[in-house]
Amino acid sequence: MMRVLFICMASCLLVVNGGNTINRCALAKILHEEDLDGFEGYSLPDWLCLAFVESNFNISKVNENVDGSFDYGIFQINSHYWCNDYQSHSENFCHTDCQELLNPNLLSSIHCAKKIVSGSGGMKNWVEWRLHCSGRPLSYWMTGCHLE
Questions:
Q1: What are the residue ranges spanned by the domains of the chain?
Q2: For this structure, is 54 an active site residue?
Q3: What is the pLDDT at residue 8?
Q4: Model's pTM, two decimal places?
């Protein structure tokens, strides 16, 4: 019985420490400091919704796609177009190593996301944003966040 309890507790610790998530309001503050509020017409709630639907605020998320490319970080930026993962062909339009998109300071992810949003399609480049955020009221994403 004690062994089962130990295994359950250890599993819970692994789940808690398994991801590198950021608090919604802490992310809002960083995005605000990096001048994303209003960038290319997108509000902070747009950016928060994007981060939530893509990674559930998980900075270290990596997802493999059926085409062999990978999506990296809080905004799930794709290796085929935007970063170099040294595993497959990459256009590397952001001129960055995909592992940099997993950095907790988020600067590489933010700079690359700005480049993506500045191009044709804006945030519509992210399917999940189109499906779950576009055209919806999003102000609730800022509830309780103080950006002073």
A1: 20-142
A2: yes
A3: 39
A4: 0.86
